[in-house]
Write a structure and sequence with these properties.
globular; three-stranded antiparallel beta sheet; 5 helices; alpha+beta; six-stranded antiparallel beta sheet
Length: about 170
């Protein structure tokens, strides 16, 4: 990406911090990671990778009900439920619930975890985006909302603590 393209993307994300990351990436022909990195510095911290993946997922598994989103070109898949505790086996991080969200994640492809706090659709939002080695987003885990649609303060505190642990 040229310096002019990066400057333009940074300006765009400063002026539109709630833009859909994947849409901006597709429209500008950059990676979602580049879009996240272009957010104002006070809105994002990035750290870790495969080395932090397991610890992050095990911590998130203790938060209670969150929303996990997988955004592809073909759809946006959301599940609102606790994240299952998992463990490594046969080359995957295996989520152990027999129902709800379960499956096998290629944790070794994680090249970073972005902790993002920004406005989205008129409300505050906070999510951890697990970034892959190609600059894509593996999935995002959003801090849950209470009955008034405000971010759950206990989860937000845990989110910030995890960001501090992983990103310093």
């Amino acid at each position: 990406m040229t310096t002019a393209m990066l400057d333009d993307l940074t300006t765009y994300m400063r002026d539109n911090p709630g833009a859909v990351i994947e849409d901006v990436a597709r429209d500008r022909k950059v990676t979602p990671r580049a879009v996240i990195e272009a957010l104002p510095a006070e809105m994002v911290k990035i750290g870790g990778g495969a080395d932090a993946f397991v610890a992050a997922m095990q911590d998130i598994a203790t938060w209670g009900v969150v929303t996990l989103i997988v955004h592809t070109d073909d759809g946006i898949f959301e599940i609102t439920d606790p994240v299952a505790p998992g463990s490594i086996g046969r080359g995957y991080f295996n989520l152990s619930h027999p129902t709800g969200l379960h499956g096998h994640l290629r944790h070794e492809r994680c090249a970073g975890i972005a902790f993002v706090e920004r406005p989205f659709m008129g409300k505050s939002s906070a999510f951890a985006a697990f970034l892959n080695v190609d600059g894509g987003v593996m999935f995002k885990v959003f801090v849950g909302r209470d009955e008034t649609r405000a971010l759950k303060q206990d989860q937000l505190t845990r989110f910030r603590a995890l960001a501090q642990t992983i990103c310093g």
